């Protein structure tokens, strides 16, 4: 095949979602001359890709929350996959929890492995495909220090007013401003989040996550979550880094107690100071399971991954092919 022919051929993509945080997946081997233009065009909610009605029964949502360019390195054991998330605004995010779960499922599907190392710009993350098909990914140690969030000041930002919202700043691979509220549904996120997302205290911007703490009759704590994402510049149906961020912030603010205390309490069976208590976090798109240990060990994120459909698009969005 001539170079000209290879350039003219369309690019194959797979559409996946993790708790309705949805992504186009493109093999990094494919020649995509301008990844930002590709993601901007095909992730667009009005004009982007959509299932053609033949491959899936019902037409799903058009567009996506981002494009994952994935490079598989299957000569290693476990196999590795290098993940680059290009967002609808053309920016690249260092990490994405649900995207990393999708990347691991994609690599596992191709190799038959049930463990995958996902290389992200925030570090290498170990992922495991569980027996029920869920994917668990390690999420590193949440950082509150100003240098790592990052913050444009020398002190951590804990329960302080930023543009009308009381937030705690934490980095879980990407920066989040977490606000605890009584009822996440009562928040007009599109109205309040943009000013926080662009506040001067966040030199690289921030994702804005609102969370509410729920407690059932047995005293078991869970969370509801809504996140306004940088790069999407809108609310997504789920956000993995946000789910970890809110649990880390809840622990920092002592809203859930430490494992040392809860180990003998109601949720004793689910507790361990090295692995951390398992918390269910419910964004609009489904349920995620999060652990954030008090000491040693890293946070984890677990949830389902769904392959929606496959398709082909012109490699240059503005070109007819
Ligand atoms: N949805 C992703 C987060 C993408 C990060 C991005 N919106 C940014 O920080 O720019 C997640 O599941 O963690």
UniProtKB/TrEMBL annotation:
Enzyme Commission number(s): 5.1.1.7
Leader sequence residues: none
GO biological process, one term: lysine biosynthetic process via diaminopimelate
Active site: 96, 239
Binding site for substrate: 21, 87, 97-98, 207, 229-230, 240-241
Protein origin, superkingdom: Archaea
Region of interest (Disordered), residue spans: 261-296
Subcellular location: Cytoplasm
Predominant cellular place of this UniProt entry's protein: cytoplasm
Quaternary structure and interacting proteins, as annotated: Homodimer.
Protein name per its UniProtKB record: Diaminopimelate epimerase
Lineage, broadest ranks: Archaea, Methanobacteriati, Methanobacteriota, Stenosarchaea group, Halobacteria
Underlying gene: dapF
